[in-house]
Amino acid sequence: MPKVQVLNINGSNVSEVELNPEIFDIENVNEHAVYLVVKNILANKRQGTKSAKTRAEVRGGGRKPYRQKGTGRARQGSIRSPQFKGGGVVFAPKPRSFAYTTPKKVRRLALKSVLTSKARDNEIFVLDGLKFEEAKTKNMVAMLNAIKSTEKALVATDGPCEDVKRAGHNLKHVKVVDVRNINVYDLLKYDSFVISTDALKVLEEVFN
Question: In what ranges is there compositional bias, type Basic residues (predicted)?
Fold first, then answer.
């Protein structure tokens, strides 16, 4: 059973906590499940708003540009055919949704796989509490430096903690998120995973 030191926001050791092995120490890390979920997340992020006109939608081209025979050139029916400048687009893209769903079992397996990798690489930092007296950026920076976290950090809270969220808002490489909304893509994108003990309990309840 993996164990992690519990720190306070000043970086001092407070206690030790045992991580749930069913979440943070699974036997086989499934990289393919992680790939499937990341691909799904990125597909769902696509706007799908690109659009172009087909030859039926562009303006003009009502008559033949020149007669059928006798010119020495290939016969043409419209100057708005795809081969002409200003013509329509072949198989023109249209607005569409790229969203789809991945099975729940695959999503859970991928999340467990990434959390296990984070635990084995010592990239999980557990705090006894995550609150600031003032919601200022310098407080977030001081906390991350104190616990010796990397610059790119995903900070998980046990609810909508506005003071923590505001403190990390101006930091380009820091994201504050409710632990119920963490996903595989964010865990991979950020090097460190900072979580409070309360949020850790919520995370374990989510998997039950």
Answer: 61-72
